[in-house]
Protein 1
Amino acid sequence: MSNLDMLPLTKLDRLRMESSNNRELRDRFLNDPAGVLREAGFALSDSVNIQVIEDDETTHHITLPPFVGTDPAPQGPSSQPGSGPSTWECTTCTPTTPIAAGSLASLACV
């Protein structure tokens, strides 16, 4: 049992952490993120574009959810008529939000 097995991590958190130590996984995740996520058990629509970007010692990326306007009522892709479920709404449901915030954390909720 590894130390990771003792932490309350999502599948995505585990995949991200493993990619920091496994060069082959990291390279595949950067080149074929949807394929790696599917192999890990995530169900992805073919219409979803997944991009993995790499931080380094001096550059850290922050991603923002889609802009939905100034109305505080929830709006976005999933609230539009005829649209299917969306993954953009939830980025706080994982106990490891500081690790996954602003990333694909929402995929763990779908």
Protein 2
Amino acid sequence: MLPGEVEATPNAQVMRPVPRTENVTRAAAAFCAAQNSAVVFRQAFGDGEEFPVLQDVMEIAAKADDLGRAGILSQVAQKRYGGAYGSRRAVIRARDAARGMEGTGRAHR
């Protein structure tokens, strides 16, 4: 094929993908939720005073550059319960405390 030649069937209609309504609606809803997430969070949890684990999580998350790699729950667990960073037992205790299950004697999986 030479430069400048088009690889297509002569006189064929060029088809372009049409955005599906469902995808556009989902994207708009996600964008709206993202814009209002701080307001929704404040409405639900206030300043976090009644949720001490959440308060610790927010404090550490505010300092993190990359939330996916920050190990926030591990840092909270170490701060609250001591021990080695990432200790499974401490992380489970912190997770259960965040869920409001601390001291319930719930068996862990």
